[in-house]
Write a structure and sequence with these properties.
Layout lengths: L11 H4 L14 H4 L8 H7 L8 E4 L3 E5 L9 E5 L11 H22 L3 E6 L15 E6 L3 H8 L5 H18 L6
Antiparallel strand pairs: 1-2, 2-3, 3-5, 4-5
Helix pairs in contact: 4-6
The structure holds zinc ion.
The site of zinc ion (ZN) has 6 residues, from helix 3.
Length: 185
């Protein structure tokens, strides 16, 4: 990989192990729907929540869920995951594997239309040693890249900027998803 590493100081909370999962909202009926023991997995929560904006769920279909990363490496950093809580690639069904490839493709096209990135880093961290923040639930990282973004983010990357921009970005992405007929369930 030849791309420069991004300097993302707002990720310090994540690196220091501060809360990775937000508590469920009182009005959110999620706990009853979750499989046993998966109540604290934010991807499982994203797969079933009705709070799409609060949880920054960008797209869902029968097999997959796509969400904005709360701790983005760059603006537009999406996570694409199977709806099922599975940790390994060989636990995916053929249907899920195909649906995930399609969801990654849709996410790339969506980000291209809304944010016009010049490239992407797309990858999967398997296991904590490889950097997976949530090793129990597979998820692909889709990180848009712009020429010179390392310098840009170093200047603009302040911890209190990103949470606000996530809401704004979610609105923009939903507008575009709505235009293409929607793929949320
Ligand atoms: Zn999960």
């Amino acid at each position: 990989m030849t791309a420069d590493p991004l300097w993302a100081p707002w990720r310090i909370g994540f690196v220091l192990g501060e809360k990775e999962n937000r508590p469920l909202d009182a009005e959110d009926p999620v706990p009853k729907l979750l499989p046993d023991g998966k109540g604290d997995c934010f991807l499982c929560q994203s797969a079933v929540t009705g709070q799409l904006r609060a949880r920054h769920v960008v797209a869902r279909d029968e097999q997959t869920v796509s969400v904005l990363n709360l701790y983005p490496y760059n603006n537009g950093h999406l996570l694409v995951a199977p709806r099922r809580h599975v940790a390994r690639l060989d636990e995916l069904t053929g249907l899920e594997a195909v649906a995930l490839t399609e969801a990654v493709t849709r996410s790339v096209c969506l980000l291209e239309r809304v944010m016009q990135p010049e490239g992407f880093n797309i990858g999967l961290n398997l296991g904590r040693v490889a950097g997976a923040g949530l090793p129990g639930h597979l998820h692909w990282h889709i990180v848009p890249r712009w020429n010179g973004d390392t310098n840009f983010m170093a200047v603009l990357g302040q911890t209190n900027v990103i949470p606000q921009s996530l809401d704004t970005l979610w609105d923009l992405l939903q507008e575009e998803v709505g235009r293409e007929g929607g793929n949320r369930r």
